[in-house]
Amino acid sequence: MAYLSDIEIAQSITMEPIGKIAKKIKVKDDSYEPYGKYKAKLDLSLLNREGKDGKLILVTAITPTPAGEGKTTTTIGLADGLRKIGKKSVVALREPSLGPVFGVKGGAAGGGYAQVVPMEDINLHFTGDFHAIGAANNLLAAMLDNHIYQGNALNIDPRRITWHRCVDMNDRQLRFVTNGLGGRVNGVPREDAYDITVASEIMAVLCLSESLSDLKARLSRIIVGYTYNDEPVTAGDLKAAGAMTALLRDALKPNLVQTLEGTPAIVHGGPFANIAHGCNSVIATRMAMKLGAYAVTEAGFGADLGAEKFLDIKCRVAGLKPSAVVVVATVRALKMHGGRAKNELGTEDLQALEKGLPNLLRHVSNITQVYKLPAVVAVNRFPTDTDAEIALVIEKCAKLGVKAILSDVWAKGGEGGIELAKEVVRLCNKSNNFSFSYPDEYSIEKKIETVVQRVYRGAGINIVPAAQKQIDKLASMGLSNLPVCIAKTQYSFSDDMTKLGAPDNFTVTVRNVKVSAGAGFIVVLTGDIMTMPGLPKVPAAEKIDVLDDGTMVGLF
Question: Which residues pair with 515 in a beta bridge?
Fold first, then answer.
């Protein structure tokens, strides 16, 4: 049976004018700015709208595998499903990065009949937010190097510059560079590096800011390096925050689009979850809660990364309290966690499934026992899944007091998400005792250890001497009260990507610690985490093209 590609499905749908989508959430003409026919920027004044905020629903997933989980697809399908049962839902998603779009085939606009559109725009330039973030990042880098070139009044040590340039494309050639070569008039020679734009601290700053004034204050606190006397140098010291805010003024406004079924969708911001906090913007989430009775949002990668950071960082910073959590899983992915190869997933294997199920159960247990939130498991059914395999997943989840519900939103859109929507509404009507995995007053070391032990279920941590020195420095700067953002592989609970399933008794090695003072968290690097990905042997870009009539093809 031949299936339509995601882009073919999206192009077969007649989109509603963005003004009609705005009217569904009672947004007047003077409160949004159209970007063409089907996109708009929402005015921040909508955050002050009177009335009760909607329920907040977080969609997360098991530890990702090459078999796929479908978290964004489920998020969109759930929002459509809620509309199908008469609930006023709004979905809030992250924006895709161009790097993965042209690298490993995959965007962030959903799939099948659960997509946000126009998917071509969303997966490419969209409204220019990422370009603005890149420009602000590189303006700061330019002002930093110019300050040193023009006499270095701040006494900055060029060997201790921590600020990198960025570009929103996978380009391994730029991971480590030497610049300022060619003589005195061309700058001061030094080693430098590029990050992908979504790894820039400015992305995290924009996503955690609550207003234009808050954005400017956070930008000014960004630490770009240290002086010869070991004192931090900030963007504020370089007098760069005002100009950076000017570049980001419009990017701070969230973007309104729609699902294939006309459900209002807010798409804004997109930090990676393995190296940053992995959630869309605080403003987008608040806007969705203000404009809908149910706000459905997602966090990146598995629940040990995206959900942990959504709950421990974003909810802490913004004062948010989720009403329910959806944990997405597939039988195929669970069998991979049980030891089956990707090309062996099409046949029934209850033994491999049972061996892989602890991964799902650990994520569910973390949500219900560590964070004290009600949860439901959404099982994305593939045609090769057998009734016995589905029954086993439902049985194991039931023992934790959690329902597992089949989700068929990829094939059926909102219709395939009705049962999931009903269970989410039921959970939202229950009270919960949401709590963080660690309190503010813990030391930096204790916070890291607590996440490793309570969420990853490891034995403890090993801090290398250089990282301990960095922790001591941050503590002396009075930054111990900040939450920790642990950067690790997305493929395992541990810091070893080969340890699938639900490993235990492992130790996580802390190799590097730095502060994102503007974002307001401490970044803890474990393992070999790259902030600039590379392209694969056969990039997805090779299949993307534009026909003579302007129609785009090959984009998923």
Answer: 522
